[in-house]
Amino acid sequence: MSMYQLAVRRPVAIGMVFLAIIVFGVFSFTRLPVDLFPEIEAPVITVITTYPGVAAQEIERNVTEELEDVLSTIPNLEEIRSESLDNSSIITLELDWGIDMLEASDDVRDAVSRARQQLPDDIDEPIIQKFDAGAIPIMIFAVTAEESYHELETILDDDLVASLNRVPGVGAVNLFGTPVQEIQVQIDPVQFEAYNLDIDRVSDIIGAENVSVPAGRLDIGVSSYNLRTNTEFADEREIGDVVVAYDEGRAVYLHEVASIRTEYEDETSLSRVNRGRGVAVTINKQSDANTVTVANDLHERLPEIQDRLPDDVEVSVLLDTSEFISGAINNLSSVILYAIMFVILVVFVFLHRWRATIIIAVTIPVSLVMGFIYLALTGSTLNIISLSSLAIALGMVVDDAIVVLENVMKRLEAGDDPSGAAVRGAREVFTAVVASTLTVVAVFLPLTFVSGMMGFWFRELGFIVVVTVVTSTLSALMLTPMLASVLMNHKDDQKKRSRAVQFFVSSFSKGFGALENAYGRAVRWSIRRRKTVIAGALGIFAFTLAMIPVIGTEFMPVSDNNQVQLEAELATGRSLEFTEQVIYELEEIITEEVPELRNMSIRAGGTGMGGANPVYQINGNLQLVTLDERDRSVFEIAEVLRERVEKVPEINHLQIEAGGGGAGSPRPIEVNIIGRDFEQTGVIANNLIDSMRTIEGVRDPRRSRGDDRPEFELNLDREKLAGSGLNSASVSNIVRGTMDGLVATQFRRDGHEYDVLVRYRDEDRHSLTSLEQVSVMTPDGRQVRVSDLGHINEVMTPPNIERFNRERFVSVTAGLHDRPLSDAVDDIRDQISQMDIPDDVEIEYGGDIEGQEEGFSGLLLVLVLSLVLVYIVMAGQFESFRDPLVIMFSIPFSFTGVFLALLITGTSLSVIGMLGAVILVGIVVKNAIVLIDYIRLLQGQGMKVFDSIIEAGKMRLRPVLMTTLTTVLAMFPLALALGEGAEMWQPMAISVIGGLSFSTLITLGLIPVMYAIFHRKRIAAE
User: Fold this and answer.
1) Which of 38, 64, 778, 846 is the most buried (most CB within 10 A)?
2) pLDDT at 1016
3) Is the pLDDT confidence value at 651 over 70?
4) Are 274 and 202 in contact (CB under 8 A)?
5) pLDDT bucket at 491, cuts 50 / 70 / 90
């Protein structure tokens, strides 16, 4: 017994099965966490090594190169990048996708251990970090204050951080930019020398006196007591009372040679929020938490926290990633709802029966909820990839039901009873339905084999579409016949129609009947003029090839995520006070030019990954109101802002980025210049930047290596050091401690810890003379000045040194506005070809240029594999080699429609657009399969080949047009790209709409002709 016979005979049982699927699907949907993208474990491991007080070139030679030598031998290594900065080395390892990252981390840890003996003894232990998407904050609060500004760290620790940590799903809360108190021990160098002291020794003494350690046990009678030695400092006075030396039997106290006071750390950064001084509070969620739920709970907690804070302390939301996520998810949900409405409308217009429309409509929720079940079973999230996958599948899930129900209705109109019509109608199209579904599977399954980050996205997309389409096929072959046998009676709907509806139905039926007859005549004419039709088809295909160079290409569309990023660099060496004045000017410009501004944060200096940012570098983040609240896009706002900021004379380098939130980069252009010589690669990079500024659409070209900056270099005389019993390391430590200070211990007060910093007084450490006068104690107790051990030179050094696969390089990156990436890259290649590049310098392209090449090559491989699999499926289903070839002729002309649609809409061909072209392979053949299958069915009933072609064309015209319209209209809301995150899928929707529409016209005209050509001998014999 076939599945459709079983469904018709047991309607209640089958109905309950599909009802259970819907219930389980709805239950799964309510439990799905919401996020922007699927959780991705990127195969990236970073090794960070800190070496305080050492310049970038020394870091490269003594740390980075040593580590690279061993790290380059680990298994599954794809590429290795490094950046050597002052005080730190950052090495990034990119491994093969899909490997066990725990095992890879162990391999890296073992390699670092092997290299440890070659590294300097006084470096900090290397830190090994795996890429963690959870390390990216989901929210950032801005806290501003006036009188309470300097107490913010204590206030926020007590009243904000603790409260936020109690919110379910919050993983970590961190403060950035808060003024930090410390206990400063400011040494008088004259007194120090008088008592023959040095900073290392005093720092050790202070640390040794501030302890609380176990001292054993004491048994007294039958009782036993723990002993503890507790000499922790209770206040600053006790620190000053520490004995640091003896002078002729008299104790010398610390307060005699230094002043002890509570101060704030030296200001090396400036943080401003909404034109006031402020700090940032970042919130990270737990890995399994729902981003939107956590953000909503944080918003609810905020008023309660605000009430507990001092009146002048104000907390505001600086960044909330859940807004973009919610906007994107809601937008896609609306897209799906609109698509469902369009699909139902098309079905009703063509079938003009409410019962038939309801039967088709039931297929939609049954299929879609199976996608939710799949997400729940695989532990995935509800994100823009999964929802977009459902939107893509939506137009296809009703195709099979339309084909089945349309044929059932023909059997009803022919006089069959509902049960007989349901069984016979399903049987006649069974082969076509199964074959068309298998072709969709043959296209989407290969997507799951794409490698890299795109592979993770395509994998979820491929599996969800396959699951929903297979479910829709089962529904079409079981639920649709069952419902048709119960609900359908070709006279019932007619009895209840109003005159207006009856007039519409009658007019539509007459009009469509005339269209069928006209189409039949057109097919007859085409078959008799086969050469003319083939020549026209070849001309169209030649036109397709000619369009390819005209359409620009790009990697991925960039989304309007309501943010603009600004980075401005002043002249090297500018002070924080000078930078602050420039920030005031920038704030004025931004306020004037961006009325859509919601929040603004600007920062100079501070610490980043691996080291400190220079105080002459300004970083700004502008958070705008949502897209539906403004008339301008972030890209337009960025252009206007750039025109004003470029005129600020103090800014040497400017970089303004708009948008993000997807795989595409706001700075898609990256040219890597690989060479050992700093000066040589620097000149080439500067020349390239000058050339790129003249290229249309290119914005803010900038090189990755900063300008050389002045540095004082202390050159020690090894002979003099040896004569004094000293070495370079010990003298360097003394100098560093004198200038920057040494943290001797931590002082506890009121539940908070403060560093105790030992260093010279401010007036004794801000000149070259002060540096030269620093005293170093020799092992025999003598004091030797630094000036007696060496000399000081001023040199120019690079602030950072980058390496790629163990070779030095410098990259030039740039943004792009209103121009295809391929066109800009062609111009850049032309400019580089005119430059004099030495033989020992290589030019390579990275960023979106590299991503585009990898994405296109991966999808091209999928396309070829899909074509082969589609042919194999059809050949096996039809038991024929020729008929599948006829069907395959519909595919090339879908690409014509793709290129035409992209050209008309001014859209570049991106990886997502090409994905649409690949998807079309599985969609366009469905119409041809329906047509060819019916031709074969009629021939099996004894009809002649020529007549079967004409008759099948007329009989299958309605389902072909219906399935085409449902898919096209389902994609239409995506193509409009209205709302957050919609830009990402717009090229794919445009590709599918254009390709399917054009291919349908070609299918209806060319496929009958090609079938006649392949069977011309039989036609001639008849």
Assistant:
1) 64
2) 82
3) yes
4) no
5) low
Q: Return the CA Rg of the chain.
A: 36
Same fold across 44-130 and 563-709+800-845: yes
What are φ and ψ of residue 710, in 5° steps? -70, 145
Domain-wise residue ranges, the chain: 44-130, 182-264+710-797, 563-709+800-845
CA 245 – CA 690 distance, rounded (Å): 63
What per-residue confidence (pLDDT) applies to 355?
84
468-485 as b/e, with b when 16 or more CB fall inside 10 Å?
bbbbbbbbbbbbbbbbbb
Minimal CA–CA distance to 826: which of 550, 546, 557?
A: 550
The torsion defined by the Cα of 1001, 1002, 1008 and 1011, in degrees rounded to 10, comes to -150
44-130: CATH number: 3.30.70.1430
Q: d(Cα 147, Cα 827) in Å, to the nearest integer?
A: 55
Residues 615-644 have pLDDT tens digits of 888 999 998 988 888 889 899 999 999 999
The maximal CA–CA distance of the chain, rounded, in angstroms, is: 130
Integer angstrom CA distances of residue 736 from 137, 365, 410, 451: 35, 69, 91, 49
The encoded tokens of residue 443 equal: 């296209």
Q: How far apart are CA 55 and CA 50, in angstroms?
A: 11
* Contact between 776 and 789 (Cβ < 8 Å): yes
User: How far apart, in whole angstroms, are the C-alpha atoms of residue 598 and residue 318?
Assistant: 8
Tokens at residue 436, please?
């068309």
Q: Which two tokens stand for residue 723?
A: 């004569």
Nearest to 105 by CA among 40, 45, 48: 45
Q: What is the pLDDT of residue 380?
A: 86
Distance in angstroms (rounded) separating the CA atoms of residues 820 and 695: 12
- Residue 793, SS3? strand
* DSSP calls for 538-606: HHHHHHHHHHTTTS-B-S-PPP--SEEEEEEEESTT--HHHHHHHHHHHHHHHHHH-TTEEEEEEEEE-
Secondary structure of the chain: what % helix, strand, coil (to 5)? 55, 20, 25
Count of CB atoms situated within 10 Å of the CB of 411: 23
* Amino acid letter, 482: M
Structurally, at CATH architecture level, domain 182-264+710-797 sits in: 2-Layer Sandwich (3.30)
Q: How far apart are CA 1020 and CA 1022, in angstroms?
A: 5
- The CATH architecture to which 563-709+800-845 belongs is 2-Layer Sandwich (3.30)
pLDDT grade, residue 991 (50/70/90)? very high
Q: Which residues of 356-374 are buried (b: 16+ CB within 10 A; e: fewer)?
A: bbebbbbbbbbbbbbbbbb
CA distance 127 to 140: 26
Using alpha carbons, select from 262, 250, 309, 241 the residue that is nearest to residue 281. Answer: 309
Amino acid at site 836? D
Q: pTM score, two decimals?
A: 0.81
Q: Report, as an integer, the average pLDDT of 326-332.
A: 79
DSSP annotation of 157 reads I
Distance of alpha carbon 758 from alpha carbon 183, whole angstroms: 9
| Residue 763, phi then psi, degrees to nearest 5 | -70, -10
The predicted-structure confidence for 516-532, as pLDDT tens digits, reads as follows 888 888 888 888 888 88
Q: What is the pLDDT of residue 383?
A: 83
Return the bridge partners of 808, or none. Answer: 803
At residue 494, the pLDDT reads: 52
Q: Yes or no: say if 801 and 674 are a contact pair by the CB < 8 Å rule.
A: no
Which amino acid is residue 658, in one-letter code? A
Residue 138 and residue 299 in contact, taking contact as beta carbons nearer than 8 Å: no
The residue count for the chain: 1022
Query: CA separation (Å) from 540 to 220, 452, 522, 551, 927?
Result: 104, 36, 19, 17, 20
